[in-house]
Design a protein that fits this description.
It contains 9 helices and 12 strands. It is of the alpha+beta class. It folds into 3 domains: 42 residues, no CATH class; 104 residues, 2-Layer Sandwich (Uridine Diphospho-n-acetylenolpyruvylglucosamine Reductase, domain 3), CATH 3.30.465.10; 82 residues, CO dehydrogenase flavoprotein, C-terminal domain (Enolase-like, domain 1), CATH 3.30.390.50. The chain is globular. The chain binds flavin-adenine dinucleotide. Flavin-adenine dinucleotide binds next to strand 2, helix 6 and helix 7.
């Protein structure tokens, strides 16, 4: 369990950002991941008083505050109607309902975990993150950036008419995925996919030719070998196209 000496309920994003510049301070998401650590922090910065726990839908986009939980994503009708239930499919295997009621979009994306279903899912959409310091950057760019001390304010997902299908494979339900693929067919017919849990940060790639997995690197760990992951990625992409068809 982690600990901290001081707790601050942030009154503004600027205050949260200022406090977070100190290396020993920490932003609190749902603390699902932080709790696994044993680190002792100076100040814990809580963003839960800033109204960032809402999903706001307009004609053009979804604006998803960093304190929105994975359970909210799972149950949001607009998001799931627009993207063919891909969001629900991406998060429904993560631990259990109580856990998904706790953990946040901000913590999930900022962590850029190599096993992340959440990052894999939104990467295949026209997504952006708003950061206090750097402003709005595409999720594709954010996924490649090194960790820094910025604060993630919200995720923005554009409604651009693409069709999306999320597929993952687990050795056992609720375990980390062995591989995750989110396929998207854009309105102009172009086909792309994000591939996560390779096991490395999810990346976006073109899947127009049969050899598409060759542009990616797959790794081996206790869950699966690199060869098995590459094999499964092809199968999951096939399943995704079948679902979209
Ligand atoms: C046992 C277990 C199993 C899991 N299984 C899966 C799985 O199968 N698939 C999957 O996709 N995920 C999985 N996860 C990850 C989980 O879904 C969350 O992504 C994770 O817990 C982080 O979210 P959180 O809200 O708990 O963040 P926290 O633990 O609160 O924070 C995580 C990190 O992000 C930082 N942070 C939080 N919010 C912000 C912000 N707004 N701006 C800047 N930095 C911020 C924190 O300072 C910290 O460094 C699992 C986690 C656990 C503990």
């Amino acid at each position: 369990m982690f600990s901290f000496q001081q707790y601050v309920l942030a009154e503004s994003l600027e205050q949260a950002y200022e406090l977070n510049q100190k290396k020993n301070n920490v932003i609190l998401g749902g603390t699902g991941w932080l709790k696994l650590g044993k680190k002792s922090y100076g100040t814990a910065i809580d963003l839960s008083g800033l109204g960032l726990d809402q999903i706001i839908e307009t004609e053009e986009e979804f604006s998803i505050g960093c304190m929105v939980t994975l359970r909210q994503i799972e149950l949001h009708k607009g998001l799931n109607d627009t993207f063919g239930n891909a969001c629900k499919e991406a998060v429904r295997h993560i631990v259990g309902v109580q856990f998904r009621n706790l953990v946040t979009v901000g913590g999930s994306l900022f962590g850029r975990f190599g096993f992340s279903d959440v990052l894999t899912c939104f990467l295949a959409m026209d997504s952006y993150v708003e950061l206090v310091g750097k402003g709005v950057v595409s999720l594709e760019e954010f996924a490649k950036m090194p960790y820094d001390r910025d604060v993630l304010v919200r995720l923005i997902v554009k409604k651009d008419g693409r069709k999306v299908s999320y597929q993952s494979f687990r050795n056992q339900s609720t375990d980390f995925p062995v591989i995750a693929v989110c396929a998207a067919e854009l309105q102009n017919g172009k086909k792309i996919a994000s591939v996560g849990a390779r096991p490395a940060r999810a990346v976006l790639c073109s899947v127009e030719n049969e050899d598409w997995t060759k542009e990616l690197t797959f790794g081996s760990n206790m869950r699966a070998s690199a060869e098995y992951r590459e094999f499964l990625a092809k199968i999951l992409l096939q399943k995704a196209w079948e679902e979209l068809a």
